[in-house]
Design goal:
Residues 1-5 and 216-232 have low confidence and may be disordered. This protein has helices at 10-32, 38-54, 61-70, 72-97, 102-131, 137-150, 152-171, 173-178, 180-208, 219-231. The protein is mostly helical. The chain is globular, with a radius of gyration of 20 Å. Helix 2 (38-54) crosses helix 4 (72-97) and helix 4 runs antiparallel to helix 5 (102-131). The chain has 10 helices and no strands.
Length: 232
């Protein structure tokens, strides 16, 4: 007799979750290939992993692309600001490494702090934009900066999650090669899920304070609805 409750077992739930993370990671990587769309792709990834962290129902591929389209403009604007600041920080680090004196030491420290701050503010900003409604990307980035300062322990955890792969490449390239396939399949989505879990208490407090309005409608769906109304 077939066991119809087999799919509800912990093993099959775990396999389903791993499969969802693999699909999310591949979608995220593909949508990041044009660098300009990396912000919207990361926002879409955060939109799904936040639902996973909150124990909410979600759709993997359709939910990803719906979030990607819905907040594309806001996410792209936020991402371009973060990208420009990150490039400036990396340029400062590179310039500081060319010489060894007091000035370049200060430049290196300032550039490193800028890079760390930009990464944290960008992650918080995209995560908030994925979870809440913003008309523009800059307010989400400013809220991300506030959350970075107000939630230091989760922010430190986010920095660790951002840095462990580059550090592994630098400190233990052999292990990085061994882990390359798992990282390709689910490295980004697992990292984003870890960030969402760290952010969850702060996000839950915002939701309890009434900071979660209904998400904006998908503009593609609005155009389709308008077209149907014209036909009728």
């Amino acid at each position: 007799m077939k066991d119809y409750h087999l799919n509800d077992s912990p093993f099959f739930r775990l396999m389903g979750a791993i499969g969802d993370l693999v699909v999310l990671n591949i979608l995220w990587l593909l949508c990041c290939l044009p660098v300009v769309t990396a912000g919207a792709s990361t926002l879409a990834l955060f939109a799904i992993v936040h639902k996973i962290a909150a124990g909410e129902d979600y759709r993997t591929a359709s939910g990803f692309f719906k979030a990607f389209r819905r907040d594309f403009k806001q996410a792209t604007a936020l991402w371009l600001v973060v990208l420009a600041a990150g490039i400036a920080a990396l340029a400062g680090l590179r310039a500081a490494s060319a010489q060894d004196d007091v000035f370049t030491g200060l430049l290196a420290a300032a550039s490193f702090l800028l890079l760390a701050g930009v990464c944290c503010c960008g992650c918080w900003g995209l995560a908030l934009l994925a979870r809440f409604t913003y008309r523009h990307g800059l307010p989400a980035l400013l809220d991300g900066a506030r959350m970075t300062v107000a939630n230091l322990l989760p922010t430190v955890g986010i920095l660790v999650l951002l840095a462990w792969m580059p550090l592994l490449w630098v400190l233990a390239p052999g292990w990085f090669i061994y882990l390359l396939l798992p990282l390709f399949l689910a490295g980004g989505s697992v990292t984003a899920l870890g960030m969402a879990a760290l952010m969850r208490p702060a996000v839950a407090r915002m939701e309890q304070a009434g900071r979660k309005p209904e998400p904006p409608r998908d503009p593609f769906e609005e155009e389709q609805t308008d077209g149907e109304d014209d036909l009728t």
